[in-house]
Design a protein that fits this description.
The protein is of the alpha+beta class. Helix content is 35%, strand content 17%. It is globular and about 75 Å long.
């Protein structure tokens, strides 16, 4: 009975969320509705459950590829990048055009290796599967058809033709060979079962020969690779950044949107999607390099997840829950400002400004401590469905650490938590620097929109924190330290976040130089072949090499780099850009991985089985540093005109 009640609560919550979002959809601006309509078109890897699933939008007609092998009789129906089990599929992702015009991946599973390529031309899809390694009895490629997300239509099929009857159109699917019987696999929709004793092709709308399919594939691949050449020496860096973004981008049916969650593996544990706050803003920044609509979609969708309390939540998941107790690092205004700088679409500012302003004010009202500075926190609330994450850390130290985005950082070990004020007893240099940056960026946006009083309010607030942050400067050590608000003592556990006051231009040039000379270049703290470690190398927790306990994280490198740009520190900037480039390319060139985090001693991402997703989009921020350093995209320190 208890499980039934929980199930009913979940259904009720999802229903409420869907109804609320349906109202939001009706309230979409005409401009943003056009953005989502443009994105959600055509054949692409929209289905989060498998990178072998190709779906036509808006109809939802899907062609799902799978592999049946004979050694053990197993059937791989769905495949994802980055699984780590011994018997799991291994995927090396290849080029993937944002619009699905070309995709490529290599799949290895149970002594079978195939290359799967797809291309689109004139709204038609072609698929080419090339076996590279096989079993004694060749494996079978199974193509199951379907209509996803309860869209209208029906499908009929036989061993030579699958036909989908959809509103306004009919799609026919052909293979380059006759289908075999695969009824033992239990397919529930029309399918093809094609023996992989050589290359196999599939085409929609009209039958095509293998050679015709290969010609289309080669044409679309060449067009994509030619487009990459404009990035010159950064071509491979761009490919890593763009590929991880394209493969991680999905269609999310609950709220009818194209968006880029952190990775498909995370989505499976969150009810179909998992959006995290600063992760998704950074996805918008990454997409802005060459996909305006996707950049807009990511920053708008995560902002629209704003809590009724006035903040953008730490997370919002497809199972209907979000973090009502805490937010995450306030990087949204900076990212929105930079997207506007590149594309100049004023409507995006108008769409997001009210929520960004409310979020900015929420920090000031809810996370201020007695020193006139900010602390990470977590507010109590009543769980809606009793999900684990609705109680874990709520109104305690762990929840505040989660708000920082640095979940298990040693900086927050054993820090007292004030349950009345709902904040850590620690004035945080990183949060203060981020908040000043947020105020500055939002003040510029307000000025563009003619919100002069708001702009002045934001500048005054930035000035107040910038003045008070001097309390965190240790003249003897030449660094900003977190300060215990209960004892008045500095915390000597340091991470790259201690450089974040540079984001808010809180330091003088002389102070910034000392921070570089005494800490950035210090091999006992942050300097090394691979950098920046997420805790100082001489910290007792550094050898843990566990998540934020010593590993390197792209967003930390990125934010420190942006801080360096506010000062005359060209060598430090150049060094961090070069080392970030080397780091992203290391496993990308070897394995096709873009990691969630990396080992600070070896530069590896795959040295841990858990805690470093192998295809996590914010790893691309390591490359974005290079594009800013090379002047390919504007530098954020330049004010809006």
């Amino acid at each position: 009975m208890k499980n039934c009640k929980v199930g009913l609560l979940i259904v009720l919550l999802l229903t409420i969320n869907i109804c609320v979002y349906a109202q939001q959809q009706r309230n979409r601006s005409a401009e943003y509705a056009a953005v989502q309509k443009k994105l959600a078109q055509g054949w692409n890897t929209w289905n989060t459950r498998s990178v072998l699933s190709h779906v036509l939008l808006p109809e939802g007609f899907a062609l799902n590829l799978g592999i049946m092998e004979y050694n053990t009789g197993q059937y791989l129906r769905e495949a994802l990048i980055g699984r780590v089990g011994e018997q799991d599929e291994r995927i090396i992702p290849g080029p993937h055009a944002y619009n699905g015009s070309y995709t490529e991946l290599q799949l290895s599973w149970r002594s079978i290796t195939v290359i799967v390529e797809t291309a689109t031309i004139d709204s038609e899809l072609v698929i080419l599967v090339t076996p590279m390694k096989n079993q004694v009895k060749p494996a079978v490629l199974v193509l199951e058809s379907g209509i996803l997300w309860n869209r209208a239509g029906y499908i009929k099929g036989d061993d030579r033709l699958i036909t989908a009857y959809l509103p306004g159109k009919t799609i026919r699917v052909y293979a380059t060979q006759k289908s075999a019987d695969a009824s033992l696999l239990g397919p529930q929709t029309p399918y093809f079962a094609l023996e992989l004793n050589g290359q196999t092709g599939i085409a929609t709308n009209k039958p095509r020969s293998l050679q015709e399919i290969k010609t289309i594939i080669e044409q679309q691949k060449s067009a994509l690779l030619k487009e990459e050449q404009k990035y010159g020496s950064l071509q491979e860096v761009h490919r890593a950044m763009q590929t991880v973004m394209a493969w991680d981008t999905i269609y999310e049916p609950i709220k009818d949107r194209v968006v880029t969650p952190v990775s498909r593996l995370w989505n499976l544990n969150g009810g179909g999607y998992q959006l995290f706050c600063w992760d998704t803003y950074f996805a918008g920044y990454l997409a802005s390099l060459d996909n305006k609509e996707l950049a807009f979609a990511n920053v708008i969708e995560i902002t629209r997840e704003k809590s009724p309390r006035g903040f953008v939540p730490n997370y919002a998941w497809g199972n209907g829950i979000s973090s009502h107790d805490r937010s995450q690092p306030p990087v949204g205004s900076l990212v929105v400002k930079e997207i506007y700088r590149k594309y100049g679409d004023r409507w995006v500012l108008e769409e997001l400004y009210p929520d960004l302003l409310e979020w900015n004010r929420w920090w000031y009202a809810n996370r201020m401590n007695d020193l006139g500075l900010l602390s990470w926190g977590s507010n109590p609330y009543t769980p809606l469905v009793n999900n684990y994450w609705e109680s874990a850390g709520v109104n305690d130290r762990y929840g505040a650490a989660l708000e920082s985005g640095l979940d298990n950082s040693p900086m927050y070990d054993n820090i007292p938590f004030n349950i009345d004020k709902h904040i850590l007893e620690l004035a945080d240099a990183g949060l203060c620097g981020l908040y000043i940056m947020d105020c500055d960026a939002l003040a510029e946006i307000a000025h563009v929109l003619g919100k002069i009083e708001d702009s002045q309010e934001l500048q005054e607030r930035a000035g107040q924190i910038r003045k008070n942050i001097k309390k965190l400067w240790d003249e003897q050590q030449g660094f900003y330290y977190n300060l215990h608000t209960d004892t008045g003592e500095y915390s000597r556990r340091i991470s790259p976040t201690n450089f974040y006051p540079l984001l808010g231009r809180a330091a003088t040039q002389k102070q910034a130089q000392r921070m570089i000379e005494q800490h950035f270049n210090n091999s006992n703290e942050f300097w090394g072949e691979w950098m920046l470690p997420s805790i100082a190398r001489n910290d007792p927790a550094y050898p843990d090499n566990d998540y934020w306990r010593g590993r390197i994280w792209a967003p930390m490198n990125f934010l420190v780099y942006l801080g360096l740009r506010n000062y005359d520190l060209p060598e430090a900037r150049k060094t961090l850009a070069e080392k970030s480039r080397n780091l992203i390319l290391k496993e990308w060139l070897e394995l096709g991985h873009v990691h969630e985090n990396y080992n600070a001693e070896t530069g590896q991402g795959c040295d841990v089985n858990n805690g470093s997703d192998r295809f996590y989009h914010w790893g691309g921020l390591l490359g974005l540093i290079c594009f800013i350093e090379e002047g390919i995209i504007p530098a954020p320190e330049q004010k809006l005109q």
